[in-house]
Each structure stands twice: as C-alpha cells, then as structure tokens.
Amino acid sequence: MNFLKNIFIGIKAYGGTFKLISSLGLWKYFLIPMLISLITACGIGLLAWGLSDNIANLLDKLWVWEWGSQTFHAIGEVIGALMVIALGLILYKHIIMALSAPFMSPVSERIEAHLVGKNHTHRETSNMAQLWRGVRINVRNLLMELLLTIPILLLSLIPIVNFFTSILLFLVQSYYAGFGNMDYTLERHFEVKESVQFVRKNRGIAIGNGIVFMGMLLIPIIGIILVLPLSVTASTTETVRLLEESRKLNIPEKTNTNG
Questions:
Q1: Closest CA to 233 of 125, 122, 108
Q2: pLDDT digits (tens, 9 = 90+) for 238-258
Q3: How far is residue 156's CA from residue 150's CA, in Å, rounded to a whole number?
Q4: Angle formed at CA 218 by CA 215 and CA 220, multiple of 5 degrees
Q5: Digit-coded pLDDT (tens) for 172-203
Q6: Which of 146, 175, 182, 225 is the most exposed place for a label (fewest CB within 10 A)?
Q7: Burial of 106 by CB count in 10 Å (0-12 exposed, 13-18 middle, 19+ buried)?
Q8: Residue 21 to residue 106: CA distance in whole angstroms
Q9: Per the UniProt record, which residue ranges are transmembrane (predicted)?
Q10: In this predicted model, what pLDDT tens digit does every residue of 42-84 receive, in sequence order?
Q11: 156 and 166 Cβ atoms separated by less than 8 Å
C-alpha cells in the first residue's frame, strides 16, 4: 500500500510546480534545457520515422510464405514503430537529463535552499562535475533500462500478453525518468552508489514523478518543452522531504542568540 501511496504522492507533487518556479524566478534557468529537449526530441522522432519501415523489412524475412505477407508486413511496421518509439524514449530522456545536469542541479539547489534554508550543508560541485555525474548516472540507468526493456519488447510479440507488457514497459520507463530527476538533488548529498540505494528504497516516488514525465511527452511540443522544468521541480520538493525524513540532510541547528 505504501508503494501505491508513494506513486500518487510523486504525481501530486506536480500540483504546485508552476507557482514555485514563478515565485523563485527559475524560468530563465530552463531555457537551454528546453532547447536541448526540443532538438533531441526532433532528432529521435526523425530517426524513429526512418527506421520503423527498415525493421518491418527485416521481420518480413521471418515469414517465408506467399500468403499473408502483406498483413505480416503491416504488423511488422506497427511492431517496428513501437520498438523504435520505446527505445527512442529511453534514449531521449537519458540524453536530455545528462546534458541538462549543469543547468538542473543549480535549479534543484535553489529550490532546496528555499525549502530548508540557505545555510544547509551540501557537497560543492562544479558544472563539469555535475555534467560528468549526469553522464555516469544516465549511462548506468540506460544500460539497466535496456536490460529490462528488451525482454519486455520480446514478450510484447505474444498476443494478449502484450497488453500487460505495455503497462510494465511504461512503468519501467517512468521509474528511470523519476530516478534521473531525483538525482539532481541527490548528487549534492550522495555518491552514485548511495543515490541508487536511496531511489530504490523510494521507487514509488520515482515512478510517480516519471509517470507524469512520460505522459507529458505525449503532448506535442508543449509537453516536450515543459517536461524538464515541471518534473525536476516536483522531484526536488519530494526528494528534499525524503532526505529530511531519513535524516540524511544535515541542517545545522540555529544559534541561540538569547543566551
């Protein structure tokens, strides 16, 4: 029950994102990540459009009979498109999260300072360190996600079963999307190994955040542009709350000036 509750908490966190971004004046920090997101989405979209028919042609070789070849090719095109879209979404989110790390980490830090105070302690990291951390965590997540996604895609070839595999595939992608968003905050407090353990422990929050992230990608242009600002803001508020609850966030006690 806590797992499902945390999923809804992760989704609900998006409720106040617009207000928080505006009140802290953060929109200007999202301009370059928005551009990165748009360019990456267009590139992967063109790649998916070009490769789906090629995959169908490869699948045609599995059908050695004359009859039903056109139907099999049509099915192959659908399967090819789904495979390219699934793999394209995986690549898309990891590319934009890795490249946007130097811009998203400072945004996350400003939100954290707003929530818990400016004097909280954290590890100092440079833009290059944030970019390298983003690349490391997203390459790691990309490999893990592919290990899970490929078997799911193969199972999706089975009728009826493919209904359940579609849901499972969406949840897997949501988890790693939420993971990447949470790490913009976690990188100031944990090494990569500790971050992996923290997100795994709070996978419901990650999935909830990622569900909205993945859902926004279905909204043409607007969703692609706004997906990072809203998802990073939502994940930061929840990650900071979780850090405080687990006492991993070391906030120095206020000095008593009265005595």
A1: 108
A2: 999 999 888 755 554 444 434
A3: 10
A4: 135
A5: 999 999 999 999 999 988 888 999 999 999 99
A6: 146
A7: middle
A8: 13
A9: 29-51, 71-92, 146-172, 211-232
A10: 887 787 777 767 776 776 666 667 676 777 777 777 777 777 7
A11: yes
Angle between the 222-245 and 203-216 helix axes, to the nearest 10 degrees?
170
Return the ∠ at Cα 210 (arms to 251 and 34), rounded to 5°.
85
Find out whether 173 and 53 touch, Cβ atoms under 8 Å: no
3-state secondary structure labels for all residues of the chain? CHHHHHHHHHHHHHHHHHHHHHHCCCHHHHHHHHHHHHHHHHHHHHHHHHHHHHHHHHHHCCCCCCCCHHHHHHHHHHHHHHHHHHHHHHHHHHHHHHHCHHHHHHHHHHHHHHHHCCCCCCCCCCHHHHHHHHHHHHHHHHHHHHHHHHHHHHHCCCCCHHHHHHHHHHHHHHHHHHHHHHHHHHCCCCCHHHHHHHHHHCHHHHHHHHHHHHHHCCCCCHHHHHHHHHHHHHHHHHHHHHHHHCCCCCCCCCCCCCC
User: HSE-up of 177 (CA within 13 Å, CB side)?
Assistant: 30
Burial 12-36 (b: 16+ CB within 10 A, else e): ebbeebeebbeeeebeebbeebbeb
**Which residues have C-beta within 8 Å of that of residue 46, sequence separation ≥ 6?**
none
Contact 96, 37 (CB under 8 A): yes
Q: What are phi and psi of 127, to 5 degrees?
A: -60, -40
Compute the radius of gyration of the chain from its Cα atoms: 21
